[in-house]
Write a structure and sequence with these properties.
3 domains; five-stranded antiparallel beta sheet
Length: 372
């Protein structure tokens, strides 16, 4: 059978399995046959968007949920993003989940299951299925009650009472072998289009993944990706912004234009990211405009920020007259600790600016009178 004909059949099968509202154009699916071991294999589907770019993965799952005794068949559909992060589930038409007493899940059970499956750090990660069976019994211990074993009590908040094994089995499918397979497949689709898309995504995992591929180990950005990375630095997500900033080399910020851009970013940023920017500047040689901007910012800053700024300015081999004058005006500030730091800084520079010299002498006279 030709491949196109086979894809049409697959599309029709998916329409039946998912229902008409989930029918997928056969031309927008790619199939991958995954073999985890000698007894477990399945088809993983990659769905493409209208532009032919990877959109998401899904899998039609049939699995028996059992250990000993009674087994329950489960039919469910799982969806992952392009890095293997579990997203959601739904069901083929007419399928539901049931508990050990054969009662169907209620909506709150489905909501809790989504929360359980959405947590990649669940305690279920390090629990063996055998640990969920009460010692000395061969029956399914699928309830969390006073008779349950210690392990089962430990994971009580990670499971649904009456559906312990269902939660366990489905969590390990969502976060198991398939995750690395999805990442491997996505790697094969890597190109500039995908990287630009990931960098501009609201999915921070996509952004981290793409930054590792467009910023070199030396902190340089590959051609064509600078606007994407700088947009992340100025973005609303503190963690991705700080990650991008830290990955960039100190050398990247040595020009007037980039230092001006970084300072504009500082002025628009929240407090935590402002501190991150000041830390980044620790080993960056200042151009005159940046030093002057920082000197001007000191009066508007709190003690932590102004202290960091003065240390940054003190590391510079020289400062322009404009920056020195701005600092000298703060010699008589109410904060005596700040005044002393500025005095030491300007004294070290051996300023020849007459205005600065006059301010230093005034400060010295004031300090002498205070000490009398």
């Amino acid at each position: 059978m030709k491949r196109r004909g086979w894809l049409v059949i697959v599309g029709l099968m998916l329409a039946v399995f998912f229902g008409q509202s989930y029918a997928i154009d056969p031309g927008k699916i790619r199939e991958f046959h995954i073999r985890e071991n000698d007894t477990t294999s399945y088809t993983l589907i990659l769905v493409l968007d209208d532009a032919g770019q990877p959109a998401y993965f899904f899998r039609n799952i049939f699995t028996p949920v059992c250990l000993t005794g009674e087994c329950k068949p489960v039919y469910i559909n799982f969806y992952w993003d392009l890095l293997g992060n579990y997203q959601r589930f739904d069901f083929p038409p007419g399928e539901v989940l049931t508990k050990m007493d054969h009662k169907e899940f209620k909506q709150e059970d489905y909501d809790k299951l989504q929360g359980i499956l959405h947590n990649p750090s669940s305690l279920l990660k390090d629990v063996a299925m055998n640990d969920l069976v009460g010692k000395g019994t061969e029956n399914l211990a699928d309830s969390v009650d006073a008779k349950a074993g210690a392990t089962l009590k430990t994971v009580k908040n990670e499971v649904i009472d009456g559906a312990v094994y269902t939660c366990y089995t489905l969590w390990h499918i969502a976060h198991g072998y398939v995750v690395n397979e999805i990442r491997r497949i996505t790697e094969t689709y890597q190109d500039d289009t995908l990287l630009h898309r990931f960098l501009g995504s609201n999915n921070f995992d996509y952004q981290y993944w793409a930054m590792e591929r467009v910023i070199t180990s030396e902190g340089d950005i590959y051609p064509g990706f600078m606007p994407d990375v700088l947009k992340i630095v100025q973005g609303k997500n503190l963690f991705t912004a700080r990650h991008a900033l830290q990955k960039l080399s100190n050398r990247f910020f040595q020009t007037d234009s980039r230092q001006s851009w970084l300072w504009e970013t500082y002025q628009k940023a929240g407090y935590a990211f402002q501190i991150a920017i000041l830390k980044k500047l620790t080993n960056v040689p200042f151009r005159a405009p940046l030093a002057e901007a920082i000197a001007q910012e000191i009066p508007k800053s709190n003690q932590e920020q102004s202290g960091m700024m003065l240390k940054l300015l003190a590391k510079q081999p020289s400062l322009s007259d404009k920056a020195q004058v701005q600092l000298a005006r703060r010699l008589n500030a109410p904060n005596s600790e700040q005044g002393n730091a500025i005095y030491q800084l300007l004294t070290k520079l051996k300023s020849k600016n007459q205005q600065v010299i006059a301010q230093l002498k005034t400060f010295e006279r004031s300090a002498t009178q205070t000490n009398k």
